[in-house]
Amino acid sequence: MEHGRTVLTEAVRKVQLLKIDGYCATSVMKHSDYIKSKWNVDGHEWEVRIHPNYYNNNNHWDPWMAVKLILHGEPRRNKLKVNLSCRLVDTSHRLDPSAEKSLSHVFPSCDGCTVAVMSRDIIPSSGYVVNDSLTVQCTITVLKELADIEVPANTEAPPLPPSDLERHFGELWQGQRGADVTFVLDTRERFLAHKAILAARSPVFMAEFFGGMNEKSSQSVRIEDMEASVFKGQASLHLH
C-alpha cells in the first residue's frame, strides 16, 4: 500500500484581542455606529468593525454585539475565501471564552460579512465586562489555493521508524513495575514478572496463566531444579 501526503491549500491566520474601555457608554450608539480596527492579512487591508448595538435580520427588537469584516481595495485574486471568528474573552482568566461564532465569506463583496457574537442584554451579566471593559477576540483566516500539483503514481511511503517494543518490554522486566506474578526458585530467590507479556510471547506461559493449568489465578509460581541465572536468561528470551 502506498502512502503520501500532498498539501492542497494554505491558510494565513491572524488573531487579535480588541478591548473596549468604557463599555457602558456604547449603549447610546446606534445600529449603524461602530468601533473600527484596521488589519493587514495576506497582503490585504481589512477593517474590523465592532457594532455594540447591531440589529440582525433574524431579530429586529433585541440588539446584539456584532463584528463586521470589510475588505479595502481590490483583492489580489478572484474569489477570496475568508473566515471571521469571534468570541468574548475574560482577560483575568476567571471565565472560559464564550461560544465562538464564525462565518465564511467570499470577497469581493459590498456588504462584507457580519458575525453576531452575543445579545446586548446578556453581556452585562455574562461576567465578560470587567471594570467597564469588554474584550473581543477576533480571528481572520484567509484561504490560499496552491497551484495544481501532480502527484506521482509511484509515491513511496515514508519509512517507518524502528520498533522500540523490545526495549520497552526489557525496561518493564527490569523495573518490575506493575508485575502481577512471582516466580520462586528452590534457592528461594524471587523474580517478579508480568503475566500478560509472558503469555503474549510464549504459548507455554499462555496456557499456564490463562489456560486450564493450576497457575491460572495464582500470584506465585514455583520453579524447581533451575538456577537463577538460567531462569532469568530463559525468561528474558521471551522478551526479544
UniProtKB/TrEMBL annotation:
Pathway: Protein modification; protein ubiquitination
InterPro entries noted in UniProt: BPM1-6, BTB/POZ_dom, MATH/TRAF_dom, SKP1/BTB/POZ_sf, TRAF-like
Ranges where the BTB domain occurs: 179-232
Gene3D superfamilies attached to this UniProt entry: Apoptosis, Tumor Necrosis Factor Receptor Associated Protein 2, Chain A, Potassium Channel Kv1.1, Chain A
Pfam families recorded: BTB
A single GO BP: protein ubiquitination
Top-level lineage group: Eukaryota
PANTHER family reported in the protein's UniProt record: BTB/POZ AND MATH DOMAIN-CONTAINING PROTEIN 1, TRAF TRANSCRIPTION FACTOR
Stated name of the protein: BTB domain-containing protein
Organism taxonomic ancestry: Eukaryota, Viridiplantae, Streptophyta, Embryophyta, Tracheophyta
